[in-house]
Structure formats: C-alpha cells, structure tokens
C-alpha cells in the first residue's frame, strides 16, 4: 500500500534533479514484527547501538527446526533491527545451506517475489578465485585479498603514495545494482590469528545524529552509484558481464543507478542514511560538486568520529556474519599482509527491493523512544 505523498506527487518524493524516490515497498507494505521464536537462544549485544552475537547457535539447526520459517523470519527482524548478527563455529554449514539461509532471510522478510541471490557481475572472469574445494558458484563471492586486487585492478587508484585512508573501505553491498542487496551472509573459512576485522556502522544512528533540518534536506536527494569497473574488467577480459543478477531488473552492463540518500528499511520501517557515502557512491545528484563533496565528507565524518555506532568482528575460523545492507555500511580492515595466515571467506547476498523512502517512516530512536543523549 503506497504511503501518503506529502512531499511530491504520483506517489513519489520530488527530487531536485528530477529523479523520483519511490515511497513504498509493494512486496512489504508494512514492517515485520518479531514473534518471539528465538527467545530461547542465548545472545549478547555487541554494542548498545549495533550488532548481536549468538555464540552457540548453529545455522543448520535453525534451517532444520520444525518452525524454521518462523525462526528465519524472526532472524530477519533481529538482523534488521541490530544491523548485523554474528555466529561462531559454523563448521557444519556448507555452501548450499549458507545460500539457503541467506535466500530465506530475504524471501521471508518481504523482498520482491521474483528476486533471489545476487550473481556477481564478473563471475565469468577467469582470474576469479575458487572456493576452498576448488569449485565456483555464481551466487557465491569468494573473499580473498588476492582476488580483491584482481577485481579492482582496472579501477583508478589515486594517492597511492599518500598515507592510507581507510574511509574508502566503507560500502553497502551491490549498491551499483538497480535493486541492491538486502541481506549479505559471510562465512570466514580461514582467518589469521589476528587482523582482517570487519566493521559495520549503523546508518540508522548516523541519521539520528543529524539535525532535523539537515535530515529533511538529505531526504530530498538521490545519489548516482556508478561502478564502471565491472564493464571495463569484462571488456579487458573478453567476456560478458553476468545478467540478470538476482532480479529481472538487475540487467545490462551500465551499473549506474540512482538511489535515495535516505531510505526506509522495509523490515523495521526505520529511516537510515544509505547512498550518502560509500565506495559505490559516485555523486549526489542535483547539487554542485563542492556541495556533493561536502555532504559526503560530513557523513563520513559522522562515521569516523562516532565509533559507538560501529560493531567490529574479530573473525575466528568458521565464524559468520549476516547483515542488512539497507541500514548498515561495512568495511574490511586491510591489515592481513602484516601477519601470517590466509583470510578466505564465502559470501552470499540476497537482492532486495527498489530502495524507497516512506515519508511517514520514523528514525530508529523515534520509533523506540530513545533520546539522543
Ligand atoms: Fe561488502
């Protein structure tokens, strides 16, 4: 059911650059409610604001439970409220079950019916690394520092002689797609004794830390999320990019959608800053270059100067994390070259809805009645 259109016409919020922001999610018209089916599972919150860890839960037990659908739907709610959920010791979780869990979390929480798991655009690249058993799967992205170097070898890298600026690591998965990922599920198969931590930052909380007038302005904006590296990599490699990629709408090789800077999370109904910052965000539309730079630097400043908005995963062998890309950004820590040992993982991602902003949705703190101070 479309929401009211206080800021625009024809069911959209008006944007200065003519791009219109959808105001509802047709496949999930109202937020989901937690049913209590996970209350028997021990957990702890990673921080007061973001993250939860279930230290003893086996994902395979959830998949095989008599009320699996109810539990997985509740996990979707918890992941979306907390931003990211950690599991440990998933030694019995194979790739098909990892894919099934990720797919069901998206499917049972109201993603468009026709969607599925994301297919990486350059899956055909002969240089891609395989999974530890030597196989490949079009729905699995292999995490490996060597692979990362190959994938981004055609990307322009500026300032390589400058000190590191790790702010460039922050991103939301598949923002370069018309329909980006809702849930991503990463299992770390191997990890060094230390190094390679992943961080997640709450887009809900970054929104809550802005002044009401600035929030209102950002809500009128969209950003272009162009990622030309895939097309250039395919051209250089002499192969076609994969298409479609988890949705009939994720096709072609342009990779330059516009997304709302602030979006509503379909599961919680809460607002989060989304395309205001990140690796795949190219430009905020309809403003001058300096204004674009100023706004994105402000969002990044909030991320880097508010570490209480961040959950950090110290990976252990067979640990796993599942997060909701519409309300968190994440960043890997590229420090594993300093230690012995490999860092390899496998990730599946579900494809969600067209990002939207329901003008009647609330912030997380507004919805939960939590004062800012
Ligand atoms: Fe990622």
UniProtKB/TrEMBL annotation:
Q: Where is this region: Disordered?
A: 1-20
* Annotated transmembrane regions: none
Cofactor(s) needed by this chain: Fe(2+)
Which GO MF terms are attached to this record? Answer: 2-oxoglutarate-dependent dioxygenase activity; metal ion binding
Q: Which GO terms describe its cellular component?
A: cytoplasm
UniProt cross-references to InterPro entries, sorted A to Z? AtsK-like, TauD-like_sf, TauD/TfdA-like
The record, for SUPFAM superfamilies, names: Clavaminate synthase-like
Q: Where is the TauD/TfdA-like domain?
A: 46-335
Q: Coiled-coil stretches, from where to where?
A: none
Top-level taxon in the UniProt lineage: Eukaryota
Family affiliation: Belongs to the TfdA dioxygenase family.
This chain belongs to the protein called: Taurine catabolism dioxygenase
- Organism of provenance: Pleomassaria siparia CBS 279.74
């Amino acid at each position: 059911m479309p929401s009211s259109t206080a800021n625009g016409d024809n069911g959209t919020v008006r944007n200065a650059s003519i791009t219109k922001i959808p105001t509802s999610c047709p496949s999930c018209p109202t937020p989901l409610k937690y049913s209590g089916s996970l209350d028997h599972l021990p957990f702890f919150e990673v921080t007061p604001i973001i993250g939860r860890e279930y230290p003893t839960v086996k994902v395979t037990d959830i998949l095989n439970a008599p009320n699996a659908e109810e539990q997985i739907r509740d996990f979707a709610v918890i992941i979306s409220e907390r931003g990211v959920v950690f599991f440990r010791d998933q030694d019995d979780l194979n790739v098909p079950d990892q894919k099934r869990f990720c797919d069901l979390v998206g499917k049972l929480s109201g993603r468009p019916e026709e969607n599925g798991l994301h297919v990486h655009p350059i899956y055909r690249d002969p240089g891609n690394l395989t999974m530890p058993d030597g196989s490949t799967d079009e729905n699995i992205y292999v995490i490996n520092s060597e692979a990362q170097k190959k994938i981004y070898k055609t990307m322009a890298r500026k300032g390589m002689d400058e000190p590191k600026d790790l702010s460039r690591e922050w991103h939301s998965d598949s923002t370069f797609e018309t329909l980006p990922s809702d849930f991503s599920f990463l299992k770390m198969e191997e990890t060094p004794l230390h190094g390679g931590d992943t961080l997640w930052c709450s887009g809900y909380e970054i929104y809550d830390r802005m002044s009401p007038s600035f929030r209102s302005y950002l809500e009128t904006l969209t950003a272009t999320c162009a990622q030309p590296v895939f097309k250039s990599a395919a051209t250089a490699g002499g192969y076609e990019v994969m298409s479609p990629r988890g949705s009939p709408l994720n096709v072609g090789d342009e990779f330059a959608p516009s997304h709302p800077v602030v979006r509503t999370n379909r599961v919680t109904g809460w607002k989060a800053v989304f395309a205001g910052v990140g690796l795949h965000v190219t430009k905020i539309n309809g403003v001058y270059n300096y204004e674009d730079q100023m706004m994105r630097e402000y969002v990044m400043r909030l991320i880097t100067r508010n570490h209480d908005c961040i959950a950090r995963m110290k990976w252990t062998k067979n640990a796993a994390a599942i997060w909701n890309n519409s309300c968190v950004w994440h960043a890997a820590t590229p420090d594993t070259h300093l230690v012995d040992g490999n860092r390899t993982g496998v990730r599946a991602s579900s494809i969600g809805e067209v990002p939207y902003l329901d003008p009647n949705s609330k912030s997380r703190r507004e919805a939960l009645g939590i004062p800012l101070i």
